[in-house]
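Side project, low priority. Logging it here so it doesn't get lost.
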Amino acid sequence: MTDEATQALSEILEDAGSADDQALRLVAEEDGRYSFALDEPRDGDQVVADGERSVLLIADDLAASLDGIRLELTPGVDGGELRLAPAS
């Protein structure tokens, strides 16, 4: 995960007024796409933090399927877009 993506998730959580124990969970949809849902950490999650704050939660089974993939922020007019891309 890039530093820019970590910062973007932190800003999303702050703007949403989420509780300190909440983070964005990466969710695999039935159509093969991914989305985010506000959630709390669960046993077995991989957790990405921005300082003291957890910003991203990924279930272990999903994390295993994303080996070699990273979350990045691509620049854009409206602040950019988060996307999964091959790790370089």
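Brief comment: The chain has two helices and six strands.
Revisit when time allows.
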